[in-house]
Amino acid sequence: MLEQLVDGIFWDIALVVFFAGIAWRIVDVIRRPGRNDLAESRNSGISGAIMANIRGFFPRREISPRIRIHVIAGYMFHLGLFILLILAAPHVKFIEEHITGFGWTAMPYGVFVITAMISFAGLILLWIHRLLNPVSQLISRRGDHVATTLVFFVMLTGCMALAESSTGLRLFHRFTVELLMIYFPFSALMHAIMFVPSRAYTGSLFGRRGVKL
Amino acid sequence: MASETNTKSARMRKTVYFSILSLLIVLALPLIPYAFDALAVDVKQNKEDKLVALQSPAINLWNDVRQRNGKIEGTSQVKSVDSGILINKTGEDWRRFRLEILVPYGAYLMAGILGAIILFYLVRGKTLISGGRSGERIPRFTLNQRTAHWFTAGVFWLLAITGLILLYGKFVLIPLLGAEGFSITAAACKEMHNLFGPLFLLAVLAMLILLVKDNFFKLVDLKWFAKGGGMFGGHVSAGRFNAGEKTWFWMVMIFGIALGISGLILEFAILGQGREVMALSHMFHGISALILISVSFGHIYLGTVGVEGTLESMTTGSVDAAWAKEHHDLWYKEMTEDSETIVSADKNTQSGIAQSGIASPDTGG
To answer: Which of A79, A122, A139, B82 is least buried, going by the fewest C-beta atoms within 10 A?
Structure first.
C-alpha cells in the first residue's frame, strides 16, 4: 500500500510540482519589468555576465579570511551532494530505469562513503554556522532552516538505505526526496538553478556600466 | 520593559520546544524506517508465517570442535587473514564479555550517573549566579570553537543513539518491534554509525587543536579537586576552565580518539586485521563509548539546567561578568585587566556581528 503510494502517486505529484514550480519561478523572474538602461553601454554585458559567474566561485580577497568556513564547508557540501546525486550506484540505477533509459559507471562504494562523509560534514558545519554566526542569524529565515533540515534528512535517509537491505528504508528515503522536490521551487533551494542567471544578470548590468577609457 | 521580558520568555519557550522536538525526532529517527517497512509489507501475511525452530544436526559436532584446546589453524585455498581458522575460541570470550559485562555494567553506569544527577538536582537545585547578572559580557568562546563544539556534540549524539540501539536493541527493541523490525532499525543505525564515525574523530582532533591551550592542568586545579569543585559549598578558584572541565576535555580526547581509532579498525575490515584485533577493538570501542556517554550526562546537566548562565557561553560566545567572577575568578581577573574586553549586554550583539567579520552599519566599516 505505502510502497504503491510512495513509488506511484506521490512520486508523480512530486515530479509535477517540482518541474511546474521551477518553470513558474523562472517565468516569474523573466516577466519582472527591468529598468531601462538609458546610458550608452560600455560593452555588450556578455563578458560581464561570464566574468561574474566565474568570479562568484571565488571569495573576494578582502573578506576571504573571514568567511573561510563558509567557503570550505560550502564547497564540501555542494560538490559532495552533486557527486552523490550523479554518481552513487543506486542513483545511477534509478536514473537508468526510470528517467534516461541508459546509465553510466557509478563510483565505487568506498568513494561513495568518503564523499558522503565530506558532504555531511560540510552541511552540518554550514548549519551550525548559520545558527551561531550573528550575521547569518539575522539574515536567516524559517525557510532556510526548513530547507537545510529537509536536505539533511534526505541525505541521512539515503545513508540509512545504503545497504539496500529493506523496502522500508528505500521508501523512507524516496519519501523524503519527494518532500524536498515539492518544497524546492518555493524555497531558497531554487538558488541551485538560479545562481547562474542571477550572477549573469548582475554581471552584465555592471559590465555595461561606466565609460570607455 | 515588560514587553521585552515577554519577548525573551517567548523566545526561550520557543527554543525549549524546538529543542525537545529536535531531540524527539533524533530519537525516533532510527525507528521511522521500521514504521515504513511495517506499512509497506503485507502485515497479515507476516503474522501467518510462523517460524519453525529447527536444530542443526551438526550442532554437537561444532560444539565438540570448539571445546578443543589450543589454536586450531589449518590450511585453506582462501588466502586472507584468519582464513585457516575454523573456529576462533576467543570469539566466545568476546561474546561473553559483551553480554555479561559490557551490556549490563554499561547500563548500570549510565543509569547510575543519570540517577545521581537527578538526585543532585532535586537536592541542590539550579546553581544561580549569586547577586544576579551584572549586565556586562565577557567573550569566552570564538565562533570557530563553538562551531567545533556543536559539530562534535551533534555527531557524538547521533553516534551515541545509533550505537546504543545496536548494543541494547536486542534487549529493548526486539520485544517491541520484533526481530524483523529490529533488523531494519539496526541496519539503518549501522549505516549511520559507520558514516558519521570518522567525522567524530576529525571533530575531536579539531577540538584538540582549538581548545588544548587552556586545558593543561595547573596547581590551582588540585585545590579545585580537593574542594569537590565547590559543589557542596565554598568558593573555588579556577582559570578559564576549571579542573572538572579539563578532566572532561581530556576524557573526550582520550576516549574519543580511542573510539575513533577502534571504530576505524572495525569499519574498514579490509586493512588486514584479524578477528582477535576486531574483538579487542570492539571492547575498547564499547567501553570508551559507554564512559563518554555516561559522563556526558553530567556535562550536559552542568552546561544547561545545572548552572545559570553557562549555556550562553556556547550559544552566544560570551558570558555574564558575574558568572565569570563566580566560577572562573582567575580568568575573570585576566580578562578584566584589559577594560575593553568587557562589553555591556546591549552592545554584545553588535560586537558579535563585528567579530563575525562583517561590519555593522553603525560602525561604518
So the answer is: A139
Fold (CATH) for A2-27+63-208: Fumarate Reductase Cytochrome B subunit (1.20.950)
User: Which residue in the set B184, B199, B356 is minimally distant from A169, CB to CB?
Assistant: B184
Q: Of B66-75, B225-234, B272-281, which range is least confident?
A: B66-75
d(CA B251, CA B297): 13
Contact A120 B196 (CB under 8 A): yes
Report domain extents, chain A.
2-27+63-208
The two counts, helices (H) then strands (E), for chain A are: 10, 0
Residue B20, C-alpha cell as written in the block: 525537545
User: pTM score, two decimals?
Assistant: 0.84
- On whether both B39 and B136 belong to a single domain, the answer is no
Nearest CA of chain A to the CA of B166: how many Å?
14
Q: How many domains does chain B have?
A: 2
Nearest CB to A134; choose among B147, B198, B356: B356
Residue entry with cell 576467543: B90
Strand partners, B73: B85
Interface residue ranges in chain A relative to chain B, Cβ cutoff 8 Å: 1-3, 63, 65-67, 69, 113, 116-117, 120-121, 124-125, 128-129, 131-136, 138, 156-157, 159-163, 165-169, 171-172, 175
Q: How many CB atoms lie within 10 A of CB A118?
A: 20
Q: What is the pLDDT of residues A39-80, one digit of tens each?
A: 777 777 888 899 999 998 998 888 888 888 889 999 999 999
pLDDT in tens, B2-58: 565 566 566 656 666 666 676 667 666 666 766 666 666 554 455 445 566 677 777
B40, B183, B188 ranked by CB distance to A167: nearest: B40
CB-based contact B39 A1, cutoff 8 Å: yes
CB contact (8 A) between residue B33 and residue A159 = no
